[in-house]
């Protein structure tokens, strides 16, 4: 099995299928992709695909009194909408993923050339759907939330016999759940029972999710999933979902856990902080090639890269140009460093995030 495709992969799922609004989905991608870029992590943004007209029986499609059916119907998007969102995810530097809930939606995964398919806990014994997914030959992540042990063994054996790469997420299928319900020792169980597969942690707790990602990593989880959202149009944000600045904290909790755990015997050790500081001194900062105006979308003709990197300045690591890149919030004169608080990014609007950028450089 090729485990590298799942190693340190973060899957960010749009909460409630972005309320069925394409513009909300695009904004979620825009804000969270920038946080992913700043943290230099492999991040996938995951959609939910449903062919609603076939997924829900025609006699029930307008039953607003049945919560789940009502939510599925209200969050319906067209295939063209999904295609636009998938393309934006790619152009933002993230990996597009999806959970297909029916056979027709699996075809969309193939048509959109998604590199990995996710199977939800509720579908971990839906054999018609699983069979259809296996025909794509794409790597699969499956969550086991409340799944009986026999079904777990069956699906792992199914994909092993077909030589299809599989990662297995420990999951508590309650939205949200309490800290005491995390059952993180199940990561040990899964790693012992399925040693040939990457094991992950799908996080739905509503309280201390930074501790859980650190503990999960220390226990050997190597792929991580969490719901994401943005504050927009006054819509409430679910307690089990994270806003961009909270995802930044989550990523950094993972990085701290990884730092403290050190390197395993199967890979190169992490560099010492003094090594990183030395190398960071050669990271180029982003400077204005010409006078820049507020509202301007940065292009390659507006900036140049040079050392030294100064405090508060964006570096080449985080620079995003073009249609989904950075827009200036204020003016910046030629040859001045472009600092994080003059650009349209979640770091510009959150003092905690901004302080992290101001702690580095000269």
Describe the structure.
- This protein starts with 8 loop residues before the first strand and ends with a helix.
- 35% of the residues lie in helices and 15% in strands.
- It is an alpha/beta fold and 362 residues long.
- The radius of gyration is 21 Å and the shape is globular.
- It has helices spanning 22-39, 52-55, 67-74, 79-91, 103-111, 127-134, 149-161, 186-193, 209-219, 244-261, 273-280, 351-358; strands at 9-14, 42-49, 95-100, 117-119, 140-144, 166-171, 198-203, 223-228, 241-242, 285-288, 303-306.
- Strands 1, 2, 3, 4, 5, 6, 7, 8 and 9 form a nine-stranded parallel β-sheet that branches.
- The mean pLDDT is 90.
Q: How many beta strands in the DSSP annotation?
A: 11
Structural class call reads alpha/beta
Query: For the report, how would you describe the main beta sheet?
Result: 9 strands, parallel
Rounded mean pLDDT score: 90
How much of the residues is beta strand, in percent?
15-25%
Morphology: globular
Proportion of residues in helical segments: 25-40%
Specify the number of helices: 12
Q: Give the uncertain stretches in residue-range form.
A: none
Distance between the termini: 45 Å
Nearest-angstrom radius of gyration?
Answer: 21 Å
SSE run:
EHEHHHEHEHEHEHEHEEHHEEH
């Amino acid at each position: 099995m090729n485990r590298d495709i799942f190693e340190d992969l973060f899957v960010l799922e749009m909460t409630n299928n972005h309320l069925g609004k394409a513009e909300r989905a695009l904004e979620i991608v825009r804000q969270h992709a920038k946080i992913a870029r700043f943290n230099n992590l492999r991040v996938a943004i995951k959609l939910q695909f449903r062919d609603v007209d076939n997924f829900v029986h025609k006699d029930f499609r307008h039953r607003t009194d049945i919560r789940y059916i009502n939510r599925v119907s209200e969050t319906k998007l067209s295939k063209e909408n999904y295609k636009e969102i998938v393309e934006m995810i790619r152009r933002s530097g993230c990996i597009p993923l999806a959970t297909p809930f029916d056979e027709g939606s699996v075809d969309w995964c193939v048509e959109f050339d998604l590199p990995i398919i996710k199977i939800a806990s509720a579908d971990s014994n839906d054999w018609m759907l699983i069979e259809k997914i296996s025909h794509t030959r794409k790597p699969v992540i499956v969550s086991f939330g409340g799944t009986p042990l026999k079904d777990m063994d069956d699906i792992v054996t199914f994909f092993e016999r077909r030589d299809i790469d599989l990662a297995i997420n420990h999951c508590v299928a309650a939205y949200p759940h309490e800290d005491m319900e995390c059952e993180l020792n199940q990561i040990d169980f899964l790693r012992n029972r399925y040693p040939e597969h990457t094991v992950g942690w799908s996080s739905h707790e509503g309280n201390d999710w930074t501790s859980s990602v650190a503990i999960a990593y220390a226990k050997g989880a190597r792929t991580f999933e969490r719901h994401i959202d943005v504050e927009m149009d006054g819509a409430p944000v679910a307690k089990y979902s994270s806003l961009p600045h909270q995802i930044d904290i989550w990523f950094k909790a993972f990085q701290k856990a990884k730092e403290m755990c050190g390197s395993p015997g199967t890979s190169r050790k992490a560099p010492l902080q003094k090594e990183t500081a030395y190398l960071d001194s050669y990271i180029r900062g982003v400077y204005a090639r010409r006078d820049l105006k507020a509202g301007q979308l940065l292009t390659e003709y507006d900036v140049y890269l040079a050392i030294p990197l100064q405090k508060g300045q964006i570096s080449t690591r985080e620079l995003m140009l073009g249609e989904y890149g950075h827009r200036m919030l204020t003016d910046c004169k030629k040859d001045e460093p472009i600092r994080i608080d003059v650009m349209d990014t979640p770091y510009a609007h959150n003092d905690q995030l901004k302080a992290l950028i101001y702690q580095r450089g000269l």
